[in-house]
Amino acid sequence: MDALLRFVLDPAHRPLAIEELRGWWDATAALRATWTDPFDRAFAGGACADRIGFAFVCGYTEALRALVPDLLPGSITALCATEEGGAYPRAIHTRLVKVGPGRYELSGRKKWATVASTASSLLVVASTGEEGGKNRLRVVRVRADAPGVRLRSSTAVFVPEIPHAEVEFDGVIASDADVLPGDGYDAYLKPFRTIEDIHVHAALAGYLIGVARRRGFPRDLQERLLVLAVATRSFAHADPKAATTHVAFAGLLEVVHRLVGEIESLWAAVPDAEWSRWQRDRALLRVASSARAARRERAWSILDSVAPAGSPA
């Protein structure tokens, strides 16, 4: 952690002013590769960014690497889950069908996939059919340029540096090795929501420390941003399904909200091009806020229903 904090605090460190995601990703690859842990790469990647969009992509990509550790190092991967009805199990209609020994066919359409148009590989959530009244899901890994994969770029509502795409799969062939072990929802889709939050906020912390350092904001504010980074790191190895993780992380997000407000009050006094981008893109911080709130309420409900240790049954 010491080396990581020294890296983001280095006054000689300046993010590269590159307008396009792929160019920024390639230019910062060596710096980010210095760190072996996905959280650390997300944090360092945020510090290498001069806009929240690039920081977000770094956090998102490293979250997927935390979820699936054997992803190709340095690559951009996209999780393809969302369909017309959403990303919960009943909404997933993309099908993965076994067509021979060790051979599968993937067919369907994903309405929205973050960074898919820039990714080299895709993690696709697909149904293998119903079992016991439930839609059984698996996750299959396919190349973004595999035969039968078609991508149509989508226009971003905000944060234009983050590409999105609609993805169609028309009889894409996969092997046993491409189908990840475990249930597609319980082992991947459900925990990823929390893992993504943690790693995106790691990248956000790195980015905001860079903002504060470059503009000479008060040291006590920089210190609290460092505390935020260290605290967020503790969640990287917590159980992403645990109720305690969700309620504790909700508390951390309250701290983030207050720190962002302090930074904005200082930054607004010395506006620049980066401030304009921040104003344009800050709505990214509210994405999935309702889902986070729902997880928080469910978590408290679980914790409130458990009798404290040593209390009467």
Number of strands: 7
Strand content: 15-25%
Overall 3D geometry?
Answer: globular
Q: What string gives the helices and strands in order? A: HHHHHEEEEEEEHHHHH
Mean pLDDT: 93
Which ranges are low-confidence, i.e. pLDDT below 50, for 5 or more consecutive residues?
none
**Largest sheet composition:** 4 strands, antiparallel
Radius of gyration: 20 Å
Structural class: alpha+beta
Helix content: 40-55%
Number of helices: 10
Distance between the termini: 43 Å
Side-by-side strand order of the widest sheet? 2-3-7-6
Walkthrough of the structure:
- A hairpin with a 2-residue loop joins strand 2 (95-100) and strand 3 (103-114).
- The strands form two sheets. A four-stranded antiparallel beta sheet has the order 2-3-7-6, with no helix packed on it. Strands 1-4-5 form a three-stranded mixed beta sheet, with helices on one face.
- The protein is globular.
- The mean pLDDT is 93.
- The longest helix has 30 residues, at 185-214.
- It starts with a helix and ends in a 9-residue tail after the last helix.
- Helix 5 (52-67) runs antiparallel to helix 6 (185-214), helix 6 (185-214) packs parallel to helix 8 and helix 8 (243-267) packs across helix 10 (289-304).
- The protein contains ten helices and seven strands.
- The protein is α+β, with helices and mostly antiparallel strands.
Summarize, please:
Helices cover 45% and strands 19% of the residues.
